[in-house]
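Protein modeling request. Please complete all fields; requests missing the sequence field cannot be processed.
Requester role: graduate student
Desired output: 3D structure, token encoding
Chains: 1
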Amino acid sequence: MTPRPARRLAGLLPWAAAALGLIIVANVAAALLFELRASLRRAEAASSALAESAAEAVSRRLEALEYGLSAIATAVRPDRLDDAAHRDELHRLARRTLAVSDGVLVFTVFDGSGSLVATSRVPPERMERVSLADSPAFLTVARDWRPSLSVSERYVGRLGHAAGRPVVAVGLPVFDRDGSI
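Delivered output (181 residues):
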């Protein structure tokens, strides 16, 4: 006995429903995949724009910082670092530079061995002569030996306002007549 057409159709119905369900699921998955790709492209474009903006902002800050450091570096006389009047002059210039340098904690002047000569925070007569020869603030410039801006890795500050805080040192070397730092 052959099954009636209605029974055959009823037997195929679950398979047809499964096939239709599979087609619907595949279409939904494809639509989600396309939407995900579009979202990823938008996110990539947004993150790229954000990265470009951040790079521009950092570049401008470094430019301004280099300008301030250049003003101080131009005033440094390596042969007068032990002269109290010269240290006082460097301190006053560093304070004026700090006043117009947003986000900078301190400007410092070191001698060639890493000893602190002047700072924007403490007048020379009250400043302790400490060696920061092992500090990234000094080593960044001392190891580079290029007459250009040097930027350290992030480290934890040890003195004054920077003590215990994460800081990045930016420095500019000053060379004496012999080419020593």
